[in-house]
Each structure stands twice: as structure tokens, then as C-alpha cells.
Write a structure and sequence with these properties.
Blueprint: E1 6-11, H1 17-29, E2 33-38, H2 48-55, H3 73-79, E3 83-89, H4 91-99, H5 105-111, E4 117-121, H6 125-129, H7 131-142, E5 146-147, E6 151-154, E7 160-164, H8 168-179, E8 188-193, E9 197-201, E10 204-207, H9 213-224, E11 228-233, E12 245-248, H10 252-262, E13 268-271, E14 278-280, E15 299-301, H11 305-310, E16 317-324, H12 328-338, E17 343-348, H13 349-352, E18 357-358, E19 361-364, E20 367-370, E21 374-375, H14 376-391
Parallel strand pairs: 1-2, 1-3, 3-4, 4-5, 8-11, 8-13, 11-12, 13-16, 16-17
Antiparallel strand pairs: 6-7, 9-10, 14-15, 17-19, 18-21, 19-20
Length: 392
């Protein structure tokens, strides 16, 4: 979906410049054309040759570069760009942007642009917390410049705090989000993901096999499309997407309570979580010791979260998932009708469990809509587009 997009990536002086190399690699791989512009200070941290090799284009540094035919690189470089991204953006460069200074190629290019500007701050925590920097960030926000980050963590100086640049993966996703049509702007979406754990004792549990990848991909895609996203997740090793409200819910009951506490204000509910159908009647407070005797565990049914939400008087648009091992379309359609769902996503267990790709069929009142096997991120985008079409 990012084909034929073009950005100017500006790199300023800072140790975080090394992350820009991975960002360029990710952007180019996604089909985005990248033109790198570096400040003199940036060249002290990473070489133009490195960025040229990754971007496939000559790197510009000089305000008076003779290779630009009309001698105006500050004009020409931005005219074909869909956006300018500054990563890393030093405190000094942010100050230049706030006050409209234009004393080198990159700052002049930003001032002369007619496209969106995205800035990823990177600096020591004291520099970030300084009132002058905060005033400059406030001014950039007022000027309509998008601020990406910063993150909190260990910094090159050895201190820990807010100010470090976001990781390349996060910046990549935020740049993609900028280009994504905001077809879900104004919509509130609640998504459940991951597997629930029904504890038998402190170290054993009943669960389902689920990585959470599909639910997290939908949350990421929904955020990129402009939705206000809440992600309620069971067990998963995946880091929650940026910009998404995240709620951890380990057990089926905890997930049920979390959903019911948040569902009243939602427009769309997408139930992707692998919620255990049963849980132990009693949970041992101590580890059950192994013996030669048989062990019997009495189970009770858990609440059907999706069915209860769908039966609410003013229920949101509900979407279910059906992972089956046989008779896929038959079982999925039966589930859709029994729970009165407008849409269900059906997939064979063997086609998706723990993988980065998925092969699904969307089932609604108009029949079956099979999707080609593709990445879970693209499946998420196609699913959300289908939901948007149904709502319209």
C-alpha cells in the first residue's frame, strides 16, 4: 500500500543516527523511495556512503550542491516528497525548526517544504526536560509538525530517562501510519488478543495455543487507519503497538471484566483472543506434587465474551474469529449465526498458528469472501477495509 511513496529522510548529529540506517532499509524494502539529507554533524556519527548504499540514492549535505541543475536543492528535494522525516532530530535542530532558522541544507529544506514534516527527537534526558526544548516542542505541535516519540530508557551517556529516539521498527510503523488513509478516523475499536491462562496451581494452567500476532496486527492497522484503539490481551510475547491503549488480562474472567468495563463506548468489537472455554473449579494455592495416582480436575465453562457483547441492547459492530481443524466454512457460519454476528473470520488452525502469514475467509450475510494467503498485517488491513465497507 506504500508503493510510489517518496520521503526525504533528514539525519542530524547524534548517536541515534545509527538507527536511521535500519529505518532506511525498512522503508526501501516496503517500496518507499528514500532521499537522505544529512547535516555536517550527522556525518560524524554515520557515513553518507552507508546511507547511499541503503537508499540507492546519492546523499545530499551541501546547500550549494552543483549536481542540482538549478542550484536550489532546498527547493527541488522536497517538491517530489510525500513527507520529510527527521530522525534523529537533535535539540539544536528542533530549536531551528521552532524559530524558522535556515542555515544549512536540511533546515532550509524544511522551511521551504510543501509537504508534511515528521520529527523523531533524540537527546539526553536533561536536554529533553529543559524548558527551552519543551517550549520548542510545543511550538512544533502548534505548527502542525508531527512529533514521533521520544522513548524512555538507557541513553548513550549512561543515564536513564525520556529522550532517546524510538527504535527503527517503531518509526517505520509510524511513517506507514502517516501514509495510511484514515478510513477509521473517529471510530473506537476494542480488540481482544492472545491466549488466556486458567490456573490449576501457581505453575500450571489450561490455555490455548495462540501467539497473539493476528490481534496485535489488527490493533496496529486500526491505529494506522485513524481509529482510537483499545487492545485487551492475554498471554503474548509481542510488544503492544504504539498509540494503542493496552490492557493486560491473563484469565478468561479478567478478560471478560475488562471487556465489559470498556465496551459501552466502542463502535467496533473484534474478538481475536483464544479464550479458554473452561477453567478449573478450584485453583490450588500450592504446587500440586506429582504422584503415581491419577489426577482429576473439575472444569467449569467460562463466559462467552463475544456472545455476551453481541447480545447487548446497543452492541457495537461485532466481529468474531473461528479457528477450526475441519469443516471450516460450515462450522464458522454456524458460529456466526448462533451468535448473531454480522461478520466472522474463518481460518484453519494449521494455516495460521504462530505464523506471520494467514489464510482466511470472511463470512457475512452476503456469503464467503476468501482472501489470498498473505501477511497478517495485510489481512488486518483488508479485514478493516471490509468492516468499513459494511458500516457504510
Amino acid at each position: 500500500m506504500q508503493k510510489n511513496k517518496s520521503i526525504v529522510l533528514g539525519i542530524t548529529g547524534g548517536i541515534a543516527a545509527y538507527k536511521a540506517a535500519e529505518l532506511v532499509r525498512r522503508l526501501v524494502k516496503a517500496g518507499i523511495e528514500v532521499q537522505v539529507v544529512m547535516t555536517e554533524a550527522a556525518c560524524q556519527f554515520i557515513t553518507p556512503i552507508t546511507m547511499q548504499a541503503l537508499s540507492g540514492k546519492p546523499v545530499f549535505k551541501d546547500m550549494w550542491d552543483a549536481s542540482i541543475p538549478n542550484g536550489m536543492p532546498h527547493i527541488e528535494l522536497s517538491r517530489t516528497a510525500d513527507a520529510i522525516v527527521i530522525a534523529p532530530a537533535s535539540a539544536d535542530f528542533i530549536a531551528k525548526l521552532a524559530y524558522g532558522r535556515a542555515d544549512d541544507l536540511l533546515s532550509t529544506l524544511c522551511l521551504a517544504r510543501d509537504c508534511p514534516l515528521l520529527v523523531a527527537p533524540a537527546m539526553n534526558k536533561q536536554m529533553w526536560d529543559n524548558p527551552a526544548t519543551q517550549r520548542n516542542i510545543t511550538q512544533l505541535n502548534k505548527d502542525g509538525i508531527s512529533i514521533l516519540g521520544p522513548d524512555s530508557g538507557e541513553q548513550a551517556c549512561g543515564e536513564v530517562g525520556l529522550g532517546r529516539m524510538l527504535e527503527a521498527d517503531n518509526l517505520f510503523n509510524l511513517v506507514l501510519a502517516h501514509f495510511q488513509p484514515k478510513i477509521l478516523k473517529g471510530r473506537k475499536i476494542l480488540i481482544t488478543a492472545g491466549a488466556t491462562l486458567e490456573m490449576i496451581d501457581p505453575v500450571r494452567a489450561i490455555t490455548n495455543l495462540s501467539s497473539g500476532k493476528m490481534g496485535y496486527a489488527i490493533a496496529q492497522a486500526a491505529f494506522e487507519m485513524g481509529a482510537d484503539v483499545t487492545l485487551i490481551s492475554g498471554a503474548s510475547t509481542i510488544k503492544p503497538p504504539l498509540g494503542v491503549e493496552f490492557i493486560s488480562a491473563t484469565s478468561a474472567d479478567t478478560m471478560y471484566q475488562s471487556v465489559m468495563q470498556n465496551i459501552a463506548t466502542q463502535d467496533i468489537f473484534i474478538s481475536v483472543a483464544a479464550v479458554a472455554d473452561y477453567s478449573p473449579v478450584e485453583t490450588s494455592t500450592q504446587k500440586i506434587k506429582k504422584s503415581k495416582s491419577s489426577l482429576t480436575i473439575e472444569l467449569k465453562p467460562n463466559k462467552d465474551i463475544l456472545a455476551e457483547v453481541a447480545s447487548l441492547p446497543n452492541s457495537p459492530f461485532c466481529v468474531g474469529f473461528a479457528a477450526e481443524s475441519e469443516n471450516l466454512l460450515e462450522y464458522a457460519e454456524t458460529k456466526r449465526k448462533s451468535k448473531k454476528l454480522p461478520l466472522i473470520v474463518a481460518n484453519l488452525v494449521s494455516d495460521s498458528m504462530g505464523l506471520d502469514e494467514n489464510n482466511v475467509t470472511l463470512l457475512d450475510e452476503n456469503g464467503a469472501h476468501p482472501l489470498d494467503r498473505t501477511s497478517k498485517k495485510l489481512v488486518a488491513e483488508l479485514l478493516l477495509k471490509h468492516i468499513t465497507d459494511m458500516l457504510q
